[in-house]
UniProtKB/TrEMBL annotation:
Mg(2+) binds at residue 36. HAMAP family: Shikimate_kinase (MF_00109). It is an enzyme of class 2 (transferase). Substrate binds at residues 54, 78, 100, 157. It is found in: Cytoplasm. Binds 1 Mg(2+) ion per subunit. GO terms for molecular function: shikimate kinase activity. Its cofactor is Mg(2+). This is Shikimate kinase. ATP binds at residues 32-37, 138. The gene is aroK.
Length: 198
């Protein structure tokens, strides 16, 4: 990268942070789409604090996500998730990676719309399957047919994720490439919405 290119992208980042103000960048999408890993990279690139709602839930409850599901059930987990995300969004800007079910909650969507810019990390079923197979930490996929579960969740959730401010299709590309695309998509969205405001 030459010096001119580097300083142009620094100027782009500064403009993006300026437009963002106190709003947070919020990643939504299905399990395995890369919200946690890409969110961390986006935060490092922009120099913003990173928070993952699942990690925050695990910190406050001192339990893992599977333990929480096991001990209290999904509805309790969802209630805690809603409260934790609302609190995280009170102070920004940050990069917030949500758990895959969080955006299905109407109050959470309203909180994200009020305090953030949302990006849907969209992926196809084969890629999601490959990526979730690496870990056993997702209670909804502890099922004899995890692929069938993911397929049903795609049908149920994709129309809702589509309400996000921007979409990035994640595919067989490096995390750095996808993180750069997320930043570009946010920049485009904010530029377009500031032009509408004028
Ligand atoms: N662009 C990518 N290239 C390679 N591996 C990826 C990419 N994005 C995510 N992964 C891997 O896929 C798995 C799931 O990613 P994660 O960030 O936990 O997704 P989510 O938080 O959306 O469930 C992790 O092992 C992660 O390292
Ligand atoms: O899709 C979901 O309902 C869930 C996704 C998980 O997070 P990731 O999307 O980061 O895997 C985690 O919050 C929990 O297992 C439930
Ligand atoms: Mg995650």
């Amino acid at each position: 990268m030459n010096a001119q290119h580097a300083s142009a992208s620094q100027a782009d980042r500064a403009a993006l942070l300026d437009r963002l103000g106190k709003r947070s960048i919020v990643l939504v999408g299905l399990m395995g789409a890369g919200k946690t890993s890409i969110g961390r990279k986006v935060a490092a690139t922009l120099g913003l604090p990173f928070v993952d709602s699942d990690h925050e839930i695990e910190d406050v409850s001192r339990m893992t996500i599977p333990e929480l599901f096991e001990a209290y059930g999904e509805p309790e987990f969802r209630a805690l998730e809603q409260r934790v995300i609302a609190r995280i969004l009170e102070t920004g800007p940050r990069v917030l990676s949500t758990g895959g079910g969080a955006y299905m909650n109407e109050q959470t969507r309203a909180a994200i719309a009020g305090h953030g810019v949302s990006v849907w990390l969209k992926a196809d079923l084969d890629l999601l399957m490959e990526r979730v197979s690496k870990k056993q930490n997702r209670p909804l996929l502890r099922d004899p047919d995890p692929r069938g579960v993911l397929r049903r969740l795609m049908d149920e959730r994709y129309p809702v994720y589509a309400l996000a401010d921007a979409t990035v299709v994640t595919r067989d590309e490096s995390k750095d490439v996808i993180a750069a695309e997320v930043i570009e998509a946010i920049g485009r969205h904010m530029k377009a919405s500031s032009e509408v405001d004028q």
